[in-house]
Automatic annotation (TrEMBL):
Record field: transmembrane: 7-26, 32-53, 86-108, 120-139, 151-172, 199-218, 230-253, 273-294, 330-351, 357-381, 402-422, 428-448
Annotated keywords: Cell membrane, Membrane, Transmembrane, Transmembrane helix, Transport
Gene3D superfamilies, per database record: Amino acid/polyamine transporter I (1.20.1740.10)
Pfam family, one: AA_permease_2
Name the UniProt record assigns to this protein: Amino acid permease
Keyword Membrane among UniProt keywords: yes
């Protein structure tokens, strides 16, 4: 790979922030009120930190293209490696619809039309039209590198800074508002209760995707050292930015009125409290919309790279053409297929209850991720015993496997806790829908694997040979 396509540490952190750092997650965290501290601590200790450490060891040890699917394939077997690649890809079907659902409110607020932003039909139209625009751009340009180098400042860092400045100023002026989502403080409010369990998956979802950064290891200038540092920096920044922002938002939004997909809601309230002009909220909405746009761009090609890799290995039908890619490594058939599926999932916004659809999509995505993370955890600890002598430039625990076991147990506990709480609090119908989607999308790759034949690999190899 030429030097001009290599990614520096700064660019890598930018890509990471573009993919996982977004003001979109702030309203959901704020909705948990004082319990946001407990849920965030839980998400970091039993979810984000374990997978970050594991992905650091995996990525430094296995630097070939493939990311999580390579890790699971090496730690378990090709069948589960393929299943991981498949799930990493299909989780973006509901996941990207959930992320894109914030575009409607943001664009509505950009032009000063709050009612338009709250219209579910407008939200549906924004998701479909804008995602297809992003798809076309990704087929022509290296949007991932652009997002990391430039756009992330306008879409992530600046909106976060604006919210922090306005939120802190509003909190200083008003103090703790007893009528807000936050309400008055008491020690027992720090502990979780049933009323906020429904936000556990969404809060954990703040950190999902941090392990997918492993697909960019082959493009990094110094992957052995920079990957771990980049992931840790992104994780710490995520915790600080989200907690500070969510606290300020929870202190200004009236109790019972949180709009999970409308990040501009608290900014308008900040303007009212501070007596600042509302055009600030319009500009903020535009910048946040850019952030969502860039996050979607990063996710268009990231997970699809794993599908290109397994297609090259002859694990999917060659007639799908998933191994065919352009000069920037983007597979047209993969991208168009996922955009079509995302459009189908987007039709859920034909239902008027935007908050309910948002949580349904978030929770479904999280359940799919729970399956992926469980496979990663098992592969991680198993590889310690099946290939103990494999070079590990970065290692979880200097000696022995004790530390590795601790983080693996923490991780598996977190995965099951999130899955159980998510299903238990979703309501019977939503729980059934989420379970069916998760089971169906997990079984499909197993069926494909059972019908695998040698011709798929021969066709993929013939194509690769023709490109040289």
């Amino acid at each position: 790979m030429s030097e001009n396509t290599k990614i520096s540490l700064g660019t890598f952190v930018g890509i990471g922030m573009a993919m996982i750092a977004t003001v979109r997650s702030v309203p959901t965290l704020a909705a948990a009120s004082w319990q946001m501290f407990f849920y965030m601590a839980f998400a970091v200790i039993f979810f984000a930190l374990p997978v970050s450490l594991m992905s650091g060891e995996f990525s430094a040890m296995l630097q070939d293209a493939g990311g999580p699917q390579l890790w699971v394939r090496t730690g378990l077997n090709p069948k589960w490696g393929f299943t991981t690649a498949w799930l990493l890809w299909v989780q973006i079907f509901p996941g990207m619809v959930m992320v894109a659902s914030t575009l409607g409110p943001l664009l509505g607020n950009t032009v000063g039309n709050v009612a338009l932003g709250q219209n579910h039909w407008f939200t549906l139209g924004c998701i479909i039209v804008i995602y297809w625009i992003i798809t076309i751009l990704n087929l022509k340009f290296d949007m991932v590198k652009f997002a990391g180098n430039f756009g992330v400042w306008f879409g992530v860092y600046i909106p976060f800074a604006v919210m922090i400045i306005m939120g802190v100023a509003a909190a200083i002026k008003t103090g703790i508002d007893a009528h807000s989502v936050l309400g008055t403080f008491s020690a027992h409010k720090l502990l979780p209760d049933v009323s906020t369990f429904k936000y556990v998956a969404a809060i954990s979802f703040i950190f999902t995707g941090i392990e997918t950064l492993g697909v960019y290891v082959p493009r990094m200038k110094d992957a052995t050292h920079d990957f771990v540092r980049g992931v840790v920096f992104a994780l710490v920044a995520m915790v600080v930015l989200n907690i500070l922002n969510a606290f300020c938002v929870a202190n200004v939004v009236p109790k019972g009125t949180t709009e999970l997909t409308n990040i501009t809601q608290p900014v308008l309230l900040f303007c009212k409290v501070l007596g600042w002009p509302t055009w600030i909220a319009n500009v903020f909405s535009l910048l946040a919309a850019v952030g969502v746009f860039l996050q979607l761009s990063g996710w268009v090609t990231g997970p699809s790279q794993t599908m290109i890799q397994v297609a090259r290995e002859g694990l999917v039908p060659s007639k799908w053409g998933f191994f065919k890619h352009n000069n920037i490594g983007v597979a047209r058939n993969v991208i168009l297929t996922q955009s079509t599926c995302i459009t189908i999932f987007a039709l859920m916004y034909a239902m008027p209850d935007i908050n309910n659809v948002f949580l349904l999509l978030t929770n479904t995505t999280t359940l799919l991720y729970c399956v992926i993370y469980f496979l990663i955890a098992i592969a991680f600890i198993r590889l310690r015993y099946t290939k103990p002598d494999l070079a590990r430039p970065y290692r979880v625990g200097k000696n022995g496997n004790g530390v590795a076991w601790v983080w693996t147990v923490f991780f598996i506990f977190g995965i099951f806790a999130i899955a159980i709480v998510t299903l238990a609090t979703a309501g019977a119908m939503n729980a059934i829908i989420m379970a069916i989607i998760t089971i169906l999308l997990t079984v499909i790759p197993l069926i494909i694997n059972s019908h695998k034949n040698d011709q798929w690999l021969k066709d993929a190899q013939a194509y690769e040979a023709s490109q040289k």
